[in-house]
């Protein structure tokens, strides 16, 4: 009699569906993104009580409120940091002067820093920056390099020794944006809280960079590997008056080597209050 052999059926081969594959790759991508861009620390919703009291006191003062380097702001200037107001040259240039001063004072910063909104255990340095006042862009666009005598703006330093050059841009007295010449990354950068066309910014800054190099180095600037950079997820404003605050915060973040930004429209009320405190005390609160 033949021996009966029982064969256990083999389990069916599992073939991952498209959904499973997408989830797997998305999880992997998220893990990589988390390593490259650590989770940001959210901004607070308000200043500490003692700082809020200081802000209220500053807003009640009259006359010249604060001075820093060659810049000063009056009570009328400071009031532009109240909700719903458009920032003027005085506020933006005061803020830019503090950014420049912090960089100059901290060229050999040896302490831990803050990068992309996260406290780092690595030793980070503030970038070696130069800040051009709001009048630079006006001169460049209206007069050009030669007629605007822009060579004199860099008479006391070598622009090409900087890590990054920060430039507030006023578009026809209707909109503020931030621009940068990033020598570290080889990029002309533009950050616009309304994502408008940036072609004129890139064109003018490339022209300036070449003219400055010809003037100071006696030869054309080498644009090999340079690119025009627009950050796709640049924070966007949801009204017609917060562009100046966005611009100041873009410039401040760039001065610390950030390539993305840790704020959104919902943070602007807090940032306006913080800027009042910073200008009134002539000190940035974001010192690494």
UniProtKB/TrEMBL annotation:
**Residues of the Ubiquitin-like protease family profile domain:** 71-254
Q: Which InterPro entries match?
A: Papain-like_cys_pep_sf (IPR038765), Peptidase_C48_C (IPR003653)
Gene3D superfamilies linked to this entry: Adenoviral Proteinase, Chain A (3.40.395.10)
Cellular component, GO, one term? nucleus
Alphabetical keyword list: Hydrolase, Protease, Thiol protease
Q: Which Pfam families match?
A: Peptidase_C48
Please name the GO terms that the record assigns under molecular function: deSUMOylase activity
Query: Which terms does the UniProt entry file under GO BP?
Result: protein desumoylation; proteolysis; regulation of macromolecule metabolic process; regulation of primary metabolic process
**Family from the record:** Belongs to the peptidase C48 family.
What PANTHER family has UniProt attached to this entry?
A: GH15225P-RELATED, SENTRIN/SUMO-SPECIFIC PROTEASE
Please give the name of this protein: Cysteine proteinase
Q: What is the lineage of its organism?
A: Eukaryota, Fungi, Dikarya, Basidiomycota, Agaricomycotina
């Amino acid at each position: 009699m033949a021996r009966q052999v029982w064969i256990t059926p083999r389990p069916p081969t599992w073939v991952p569906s498209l959904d499973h594959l997408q989830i797997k790759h998305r999880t992997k991508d998220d893990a990589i993104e988390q390593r490259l861009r650590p989770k940001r620390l959210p901004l607070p919703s308000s200043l500490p009580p003692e700082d809020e009291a200081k802000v209220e006191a500053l807003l009640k003062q009259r006359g010249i409120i604060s001075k820093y380097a060659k810049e000063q702001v009056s009570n009328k200037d400071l009031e532009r940091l109240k909700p719903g107001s458009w920032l003027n040259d005085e506020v933006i240039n005061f803020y830019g002067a503090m950014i420049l001063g912090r960089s100059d004072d901290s060229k050999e910063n040896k302490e831990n820093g803050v990068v992309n909104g996260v406290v780092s255990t690595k030793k980070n340095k503030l970038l070696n920056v130069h800040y051009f006042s709001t009048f630079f862009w006006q001169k460049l666009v209206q007069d050009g390099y030669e007629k605007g005598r822009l060579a004199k703006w860099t008479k006391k330093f070598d622009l090409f020794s900087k890590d990054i050059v920060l430039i507030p841009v006023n578009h026809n007295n209707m909109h503020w944006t931030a621009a940068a010449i990033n020598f570290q990354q080889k990029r002309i950068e533009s950050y616009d809280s309304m994502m408008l066309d940036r072609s004129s910014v890139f064109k003018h800054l490339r022209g300036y960079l070449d003219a400055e190099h010809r003037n100071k180095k006696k030869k054309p600037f080498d644009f090999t590997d340079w690119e025009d950079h627009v950050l796709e997820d640049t924070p966007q404003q949801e009204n017609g008056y917060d562009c100046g605050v966005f611009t100041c915060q873009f410039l401040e973040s760039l001065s610390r080597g950030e390539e993305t930004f840790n704020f959104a429209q919902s943070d602007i009320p807090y940032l306006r209050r913080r800027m009042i405190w910073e200008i009134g005390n002539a000190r940035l609160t974001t010192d690494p």
